[in-house]
Amino acid sequence: MKKLLLGTTAIGLLALSPFANANTTIELQRFFGACEAEYGKATDVSAAVGECGIITTLVNKFAAENPDINVKVSTVEWPGYDQLNAQLASRSAPDVVSMHYSAMSDYQSRGLLVPLDKLLKDQSIKATDFTDAAITSVTKEGKIYALPFDNWTMLFHVNNNLMKKAGLMKADGNPILPTNRDELFSQGKQFKDATGKPYLVQVLANETATYARIFYTLMMQQNSKFFDDPSHIDLSGQDAKAALTFMKDIVDQGLSTKNLDYPAAVSAFSNGDGGIAVNGTWLIGSYDAQSKESNNALSNGYSVFPVPQFFKQKDVTYTDGHGWVVPRGDRSDEKMAAIGKLFKFFYDNNYEWSRTGHLPTVKKVIASNEFKSLPHRSDIAKIAKTGQALPSAVLRQFAIQDIIGEELSSAISGNKSIDDALKTAQYRVNDLLENI
């Protein structure tokens, strides 16, 4: 009995100790892949590579530096919104979730996200700390609903070795890229005649996103008001016809790969099967690493640039990005403070995340010598200023992307006329928006 009483007393004293109830658990749900075998215990962020490696190591480092906060991570398959919807419906949403800027309005408009203005202010994080491309994407109705983590966009990844063969290199070692539509066709023909390979490597099979993202960029470059009313898309003008005609002509004139899905297109550029890969920021790291190896298609011959300005009205590139949101739920002040510390850690380590190839959201990181010294970053840094998202009030952006991509694909492949594809896309998108 004496031993039992001593044990009970010890437990009681432990419960009163300042460390006993200090542990706060944050349930963090993210995409970016799974890599526990390689990075499950890693804390050296500088040695981590790729989206999964860097985010896993960042969370590990935060946990090591904050032993009073337990971060419980669950990894979902991209993009993870079906799972989040089910969790919200059952009132079991995680505390922190990775979310695309383009998906935020669907949740914010229904009151499913917590405004973060106070949480960020408590960590001395200001809206003015972030790039315009980032902060405008996460601000809804005057409030901030996510910690901006990055901006990403489509880029021109260039095989300089093939461009040299085609006579499309400058004396300074940079490739000659088109500055308008006519130059793209003339340079594309010059490239194809010299190399026997397509000028562009594009993802055109089993795909909708790439079509829509490039189309958005071409519309924005015309300063189009196609989503001036966020509840109604207008694809009836000459701007939409000019954008889609340009996209179709590239394929019709044999200047692009055809029938390649995403993995095949990534491999095709890596293998030297085309001159310029039209793909995302997230591939910079892997292509740059390949270029530093010997005896491959990109050896000492890789560069990357924003999508050129093909229409004279505006220098702009469609961008999206990833942020961290807090879903609606009942949380204590202690838990919100812990989330604030995690967000401050992500903010302080925005440079490390920018090594993925995504653009940083923190202005001082963009301006830092550390960031500028990363391969190719100075060549794409302007996107922090020229990047533009769809209007933040546009709902169902993922579904709209699929609809537009499907219809553009039909026109580019010749299964529909350009006019029919645009008319159908407009009808389908507006039908979706009218029946939310």
Secondary-structure map with pairings?
Elements: H1 2-16, E1 24-30, H2 36-39, H3 50-65, E2 69-75, H4 81-89, E3 96-100, H5 101-108, H6 117-122, H7 132-138, E4 139-140, E5 143-144, E6 147-148, E7 152-159, H8 160-165, H9 181-195, E8 200-201, H10 209-221, H11 238-252, H12 262-270, E9 276-280, H13 284-291, E10 302-306, E11 317-320, E12 322-325, H14 333-348, H15 350-354, H16 363-366, H17 369-372, H18 377-380, H19 383-386, E13 387-388, H20 397-412, H21 418-434
Parallel strand pairs: 1-2, 1-3, 8-9, 11-13
Antiparallel strand pairs: 3-12, 4-5, 6-12, 7-9, 7-10, 7-11
Helix pairs in contact: 10-20, 20-21
Give structural notes:
With 436 residues, the chain is α/β, with parallel strands linked by helices. The chain is built from 21 helices and 13 strands. The strands form three sheets. Strands 7, 8, 9, 10, 11 and 13 form a six-stranded mixed β-sheet that branches. A five-stranded mixed β-sheet has the order 2-1-3-12-6, sandwiched between helices. The longest helix has 17 residues, at 418-434. The chain is globular. It starts with a helix and ends with a helix. The relative contact order is 0.17.
